Amino acid sequence: MLLLLSCGRQRLWVKGKVQQKSFAREIPVQIRNGLIFVEVAINGRPCNFLMDTGAPTLIDARLVEELGLETKAFGTAVDSYDRRNRIDYTILNTVSLDGINFTRQGALISDFRSIPVFDCLNVDGLLGASLMRNACWQMDYHNEVIRIQEDCEGFIYSANSIVMPFRVNSQGTPKLSVILGDSLRLNYVTLDFGSSSGLSLDLEAVEDRFDPAGAGLFTTGAAGVGLYGVELDSIWFMMPEGLLTSRGDTILPGLRARIRRKGGHLFGTGILREFRSTIDWQNNQLVLEPVGGKPSPAWHNFGCALQPNGAVLEVAQLVYPSMAVESGLMLGDTVVAINSRPVNATDFCEARALFGAPEPIGLTVQRQEKRLEVKLLRQDLFAVRQ
């Protein structure tokens, strides 16, 4: 999932503070596909929020109505695929995490639970950079906890830690600089804990050294989901010679970058989950501490993805090469059964969970008058012969 918001007015982001002067908490979290979900209380009401440094704090419209919050027109929001729309905002009197009270926090309002993927995640909002920049945050994927302190002075980093300086935009989102290969410097790369991908790059930035026509691995159909729904486009994959910090330190060997036509550069959880990550907004730096052994980049996938379309489920994305393509699946095919069980659009969340599990999947597909039975295995598509 990708969300990147930028807005025409900046007054929302100057509000808010932390009630406590001194605090240190270790909070258990849920981690799903690299995304971090944390329990918060909004004006005393328990909620489930997704941590997303690539966006400001955002709250679902239905929760705004339930809490009786005052709303105001804000300006224009741009999602992760450069689509623009007007948006409203509200002020949250108190956002509490394990007794730490973030007060008078601005939050954009969106009916994102109306988007099927977001509804499946069962989240009430995004805990964004506009709130998070008021503290020091450490994300520990290995132990499935986050640590929050008033500053980063209490953290002791490992000797092999990687330090990445960053700048921030008006909403507080960190913007990194990286070096791709031996010479291509990329600035303004969004640190995005709300993206389950690794490194995503704009095609325009790499077109001198990458030709999509020669890509050995690519997708067609749905490229992803932003604030305004599904974006249709292709994604191509390339393996750069290396990914380095602006200081020349190697971040992750064997990395594959996702190339897309628009949406900006993103540094997501496909990389971040390999580290214990500390975001130090006071000193404008991200500290990455390697955990475990040497990572081996992989992309385990069935080679296709489904989306609801009206009353039915359809094949919305295909990966080339993959077993799904070899079996004859086509974009727009209607999936009438999964593992011999009839399905329709209302079964999307259950279908999405099955596609995230390792067990083989059987699809029954209808294409006009033709019916097709397909058996799919979850493969590491980075290891498929290209």
Protein architecture, described:
- The chain is mostly beta strands.
- 10% of the residues lie in helices and 46% in strands.
- It contains seven helices and 32 strands.
- The strands form three sheets. The protein has a 21-stranded mixed sheet that branches. A six-stranded mixed barrel has the order 4-5-10-6-9-8. It has a two-stranded antiparallel sheet with strand order 25-32.
- A hairpin with a 4-residue loop joins strand 11 and strand 12 (145-149).
- The protein is globular.
- Mean pLDDT is 90; it is low at 1-10.
SSE map:
Blueprint: E1 17-18, E2 24-28, E3 30-32, E4 35-42, E5 45-52, E6 58-60, H1 61-67, E7 72-78, E8 84-97, E9 100-110, H2 116-121, E10 125-128, H3 129-132, E11 136-140, E12 145-149, E13 162-168, E14 174-180, E15 184-191, E16 199-202, H4 203-206, E17 218-226, E18 229-232, E19 235-238, E20 243-245, E21 257-260, E22 266-267, H5 269-272, E23 275-280, E24 285-290, E25 300-301, E26 304-309, E27 312-320, H6 323-326, E28 334-338, E29 341-342, H7 348-355, E30 361-367, E31 370-376, E32 379-380
Parallel strand pairs: 5-10, 6-9, 15-22, 16-21
Antiparallel strand pairs: 1-9, 2-12, 3-4, 4-5, 4-8, 6-10, 7-8, 8-9, 11-12, 11-23, 13-14, 13-24, 14-15, 14-20, 16-22, 17-18, 17-19, 17-27, 19-21, 23-24, 25-32, 26-27, 27-28, 28-29, 28-30, 30-31
